[in-house]
Amino acid sequence: MGNGTRLGHTGPKGTYDIGLESHKSIFELLIDTIKEASEKYNVKILWYIMTSKENNEETVRFFEKNNYFNYGKENIIFFTQGELPMLNEDGKILLSQKSSIKMASDGHGGIFRLINNNGIIKDMKSRNIKWLFISGVDNILVKTVDPTLLGLTIDKKVLAGAKSIVKRNPEEKVGVFCKKNGRPSVIEYIEIPKSLSEARNKNGELKYGESHILCNLLNVDFIEKVGKEDMPYHVAHKKANYINEDGELVIAEKPNAYKFEAFLFDAFDKLDDMVIMRVKREDEFAPIKNEKGEDSPETARQLYINFKNK
Q: What's the distance, CA 13 to chain centroid?
C-alpha cells in the first residue's frame, strides 16, 4: 500500500478523505463493503493489509484511533511489504542518508514470497481459508467479496480468477490481459508497444482492451506454490531524492532513478488457464491516482455517489 503523495496528501493513501459528506477515508469506505458482505453471508471476512515500512506504523495507528471501524482488531491483519535498493541512471546505488541505502517497495508481486515467509499462509490454512482476493487500496468501488467470480472460478476448475473492464482508450494507464505462449498473462501499460495498444479488431474494438484492474482471486495453495519460486522484476523510472557524494540532499524534479518491482500478474503464466470476468466500470472501478483530472478524488467521488444512488 502506497502513500498519497500524488494526491497532495501526507500519509498512507488509505487515510485520505475523498470529500464525501461523511468524510470517510478510503479505508473506511473499503471496510464498509467488507462489513456488508460479512453481515450478508454471516461470516467474518478477514482483511489482510499490506503496508510499506514507511507507512506501517501510521496505518496501524489510524486503525487504532478509529477503533478498527468497529470490525474487530482480530479481523484485520497487517504485514509489511518488501524493499529493494534504488539505482541512479548510471547504475549506482542511491543513498537516502550518508549511511543508508535508498530503498523502494518491491511491488505487489512480492506478496507471494512475503506471506509465505511471515506465516500468513499458515494462518490462512489454520482458518480453512481457500481463496484470497487481492486488490489495491485506491479503488473505492472494489467488490471485495463476489460470489459470482468465486463460483465461476470454482466451476471452471481453475486456480485464479480476475476482473476486467473495457479499456477507455489506447492511452489509459492500465495493463491488459492477453496470452503468451498459450498461458494467461498481462502486459503492463509501460511495456506494451504503441502498435499493439492501438490495434483494433474487425469490430473496431481494441484488440488488447481487457484491462487488468488489480481485482484478483487466487487459490491459497497456488499462492503458497508461487511463493517458493522466483518472480521477475520490472524496471520503473522514478523521481527520487537522495544524498550525493558531497553529503548534500538532492531534490529530484524529474525522473532520475530506477526502482525494481515484481508484478502480481507475472504469476499468471504459471497457470494453465484462469477466469477473466468483465464488469462494468461504473459499478466496480473508481480509482484514485491523480490529484486532478482522470482517476482523481473528484471522478472517484462522483462514481461512488452514482453507484450508491442506483
A: 12
Does residue 220 contact residue 130 with C-beta atoms inside 8 Å? yes
Q: How distant, in Å, are the alpha carbons of 4, 110, 144, 256, 295 from that of 14?
A: 8, 20, 15, 27, 15
CA dist., res. 45 & res. 60, Å (int)? 19
* pTM of the predicted structure, to 2 decimals: 0.90
Q: What residues contact 262, with CB distance under 8 A and at least 6 apart?
A: 106, 107, 108, 109, 110, 231, 232, 233, 234
Q: Provide the 8-state DSSP code for 102.
A: -
Mark 267-292 as b/e (b = at least 16 C-beta within 10 Å): bbeebeebbbeebebeebbbbbbeee
Nearest to 49 by CA among 116, 136, 109: 136
Residue with cell 543513498: 95
- Tell me, what amino acid is at 246? D
Task: Spell out the alpha helix ranges (H) of the chain.
Answer: 26-41, 56-65, 111-117, 120-126, 147-155, 194-197, 220-226, 281-284, 297-308
**Cβ proximity of 309 and 296 under 8 Å:** no
How close are the terminal C-alpha atoms of the chain, in Å? Answer: 30
Q: At 197, list the grid cell.
A: 495498444
Q: How far apart are CA 291 and CA 17, in angstroms?
A: 12
Sign of torsion over alpha carbons 214, 220, 221, 226: positive
Per-residue confidence of the chain (310 residues) as pLDDT tens digits?
555 455 566 689 999 999 999 999 999 999 999 999 999 999 999 999 999 988 999 999 999 999 999 999 999 999 999 899 999 999 999 999 878 999 998 989 999 999 998 889 999 999 999 999 999 999 999 999 999 999 999 999 999 999 999 999 999 989 999 999 999 999 988 889 999 999 999 999 999 999 999 999 999 999 999 999 988 998 989 999 999 988 999 999 999 999 999 999 999 999 999 999 999 999 999 999 888 998 999 999 999 999 999 8
Q: How far apart are CA 81 and CA 309, in angstroms?
A: 36
